[in-house]
Fold this sequence. Notes:
By secondary structure, the chain is mostly helical. It contains four helices and no strands. Helix 2 packs across helix 3 (70-83) and helix 2 (48-63) crosses helix 4. It is flat and about 55 Å long. The mean pLDDT is 74.
Amino acid sequence: MKGAKSKGAVKADAKLAVKSKGAEKPAAKGRKGKAGKDPNKPKRAPSAFFVFMEEFRKEFKEKNPKNKSVAAVGKAAGDRWKSLSDADKAPYVAKANKLKLEYNKAIAAYNKGESTAAKKAPAKEEEEEDEEESDKSKSEVNDEDDDEGSEEDEDDDE
């Protein structure tokens, strides 16, 4: 059959197709978008496997310099990690625990600083709002004075 789509093409089209039912949900009235990530927040500590991965990537790259596939590196690392005994994993687990302790200290300091900053921030916002209101009221007062002055000028002319 000429012009017929292959099964692979049909599956690809199905994946690319936009779902019409329930695809667009209206946002709830009180909700705002997801809050952005804080760039100052400490990164989470890596697990023992990821500590192992750092070292393994270097070895794998030296042995296979032409391999650019991330999946191949991950698969080989996973196989090696599974084959390691608990004794072989011990240095990675120890390093991961050390990094986790450092992370816990850093996140505690971050949260402590954030809580004090959160208390100070609303006060600053209120001050800024008060300043804006006072600026508005000053300009409104000046506008009203100008209007009254022009009316008085008109009364004098008559």
